[in-house]
Protein 1
Amino acid sequence: MWAKGKLWQHTVTLLAEPGSARAKAWSAGKPALPPGKYLLKVYVDADDRLAKDWTAILGEADYVGQVEIRGPWKEGYGQMTVADAGKVKR
């Protein structure tokens, strides 16, 4: 996080249902998401529940909003997909 630049960055974690077509494709090669539009849902853990229990699930009270992002999902620093926080709407 860089407050002066109002920048927060994070990684995208890829999950696939065991045995699904996506899981099979990922096991045969490098996991990747297809290019396209994705809905980014933003939750804020203001109570630090995840720091105490990383398996905790954030719910409606933690939900801030959502924004659509587009991704060719290139790898590496400087290849980021950007979501403007000002466009996050409930």
Note: DSSP finds two helices and two strands in the chain.
Protein 2
Amino acid sequence: MTVSDMDRSVEFFTQVLSFEKVSDVEVSGRDYEQLQGVFGLRMRVVRLRLGDEFIEPTEYLAPRGRPFPIDTQSNDRWFQHIAIIVSDMDQAYRWLRQHKVQHASTGPQRLPDWNKNAGGIQAFYFKDPDGHFLEILQFPPGKGDPKWQRSAGKLFLGIDHTAIVVKDTEESLKFYHDALGFKIAGESENYDTEQEHLNNVFGARLHITALRAPAGPGIEFLEYLSPRDGRPMPLDERSNDIMHWQTRVLTRDAEVSARSLLSRKSRFVSAGVVKLPEQTLGADREFLVRDPDGHVMAVVQR
């Protein structure tokens, strides 16, 4: 996730959300320019861990990108968040209020029991200092990965998934399921007052599809059946814009993955597969590619 002030972001994620700082590096040069599609870049990348999962806030020291659009709504198709699992929603919400986080939901919502796949889940949307959407989520017993029921006295446990707004689930499945190999883990149709107040979108009715790889956090599609007025990803969105996210996917062979995606006419951000120096960012070869809605996947070979 691209951030405007790294020190501020690290303080927020470590002090408020209990992430642990793992590494802090600066990179520049032609290889990274070709990877990110931004000429003349110099990036500071900090790796943060929560439980078994990681995020990498990235500050572009040069060139600076555009700020997060302040009028973003949860049904705009550039919307993305990470779902941070908590052991106690009431306690977590009080903690976030104490630290004066910006609400994106009215407040924590408990999804109704009539919803077989989502009933009993509690969730709340809020924002980080740059305006990125985040979610805290608590699974009831019997839902989610069993590891989320083992808190070991911790409040913030890890990242279950990243959620993205998509225009058409079937088109997105051609990219994520057919091309990248993700498996469908579950589906639900969510609506009613709880969903409206969670997403802060009046009349929200969503088709939600959960996808999983063999390991790591999942990817969740949010297709708004109503309202259908969410705006598309700007065609000129770039990696140094603060609205930018990249979801990292590991592959055994980046060249094979790239050829497969090129054959499907996927839009690349990178100038092909880029071999990176010294695995500074944990990759030997990597490329960035957009899904049908413009969300960026970083396909990595270690």
Note: The chain is about 20% helix and 35% strand.
Protein 3
Amino acid sequence: MAKPVFKSVLIKVSGEMLAGEMGQGVDNAVLARFAEEIHGVQKLGVMTSVIIGGGNIFRGLAGAAQGMDRASADYMGMLATMINALALQDALERRGCYTRVMSAITMNEVAEPYIRRRATRHLEKGRVVVFAAGTGNPYFTTDTEAALRAAEIHADVILKATKVDGVYDKDPHQHADAVRFDELTYLDVLSRNLRVMDATAISLCMDNSLPIIVFDLSVHGNIERVVCGEPIGNRVHRA
């Protein structure tokens, strides 16, 4: 069995990934496969945390673009991430994987409040921790949440799960001439305006020397391959 090269990882996945071919909502088959892969990483002894966006249910920016108050729209988006977090928790626990959902907004009936030391303790005990409700503040994305939480819990890396096998200069699904990068620095991502994560998240990662690996989640087993050091996807790091 391959051995992991990271002790602690934070997996960031967009809500749209959970929608699968449906385009919205939660595709149970996609959710089940994702949960199985996370459980596989957890069984390797890796401290595993997860953040899922809410775009499959509601996206704050889209609501604001249609005339909603931006803060209200963002809070709705945070609630959408909680729905996805609870769905993932259920899928993981049905596989015997102890899981805790921690929310940046107080929702005591369904999740624990986010407390950094408590989150760290859960991870040390071998539980998967799913962070939900963003940073608890409007105008910040789940990308920023991922960079912030990863820095707080001293994760070794952010694993950015996408629908493509790395970072391209433009969307390869829409442009046949899209060029894939081999390696990237944080400054490359910022200066080229590449859509790896938003600028605030990239800056946080750069300030904390926190690497990001961008990889294709649709290939079965890729999470474990990345955790075990296989050269999959792209790594964003310092020069």
Note: The two ends are 32 Å apart (CA to CA).
Protein 4
Amino acid sequence: MSNVIPRRAWLALVVAGLLLLDGPRASTRTAATPVARSVDAIGMTVSDMDRSIAFFSNVLTFTVVSDDEVAGSEFERLSGVSGLRARAVRMKLGAEQIELTEYFAPRGRPIPVDSRSNDRWFQHVAIIVSDMDRAYARLRAHRVEHASPEPQRLPDWNPAAGGIRAFYFKDPDGHPLEVLQFPAGKGDPRWHAPSDQLFLGIDHTAIVVEDTARSLAFYRDLLGLTVAGESVNFGPEQERLNNVSGARLRITGLTTGNGPGIEFLEYLSPRNGRAAVGIQSNDMAHWETTVKTTDIGDAFERLMAGRVFFVSPSVAAPRARHYSKGVLIKDPDGHAVKVIER
């Protein structure tokens, strides 16, 4: 499912100052200084950049923001990939951005052909549309690969999700994507503003987690995101949306108050999703959520104290177009998070 919590509720929580302290060093810091100040972009590794640009621009109406070729020791340090040369392209839809990276060397592995929506390497972005029927017709006209059989309307018995329409599909590399339409009274008010655009922007990125409490310790307690709310979703519509028989999900929405939200999908059943093991930055199954921080040195110390898994051995200074320094870490389920400083 997708974004069961209205963004106005997320913002209200942020205004209320419900950010929590992190880790053993929290006594010297304040709750007003989270590691993650905003979600900057959602990244994915692609196998053919020109093909991916064509897909996201021609099908989903993203526009190119920047196009750079990168190499060198600092990019190797950041990504954990030795001897790399890559092309990084940022694309924008509404106010949100994605970052596509094609590794010319070394080439990575494709997404497993038997990937399912409850595998713990699953991640997607939820793209808001103004008209689901038109959006689905456009996707059909471009012959996208279905992940759901058709758009699903979530039932009214679930007050948080009732009336939401959603559809899962895939990009040319097999990355799962979602289009989503909110009914009146749900979602951020900006998604209901009059617009002549069909695809409006990115509401959130969703990740499959094994244990919500463990993931909250990482994203809420350590990074400083705020919990917006929770829901438990199940039933035939949810099963068809995720294409997982017997799907019963605990869904938790989080936000920094700036940029897309992050949504946990914990499958209460079936619990046979596979763990993300050995996924490298140049593999097509690699996604990364980029968050901005105020002081990367301070953030690095706090992450070290939180005993997270580091892909980057230390803070890298690649002097990239959109940031000057960064570090790549992984959450408890293996989802990558890139922490950057401008």
Note: The longest helix spans residues 49-59.
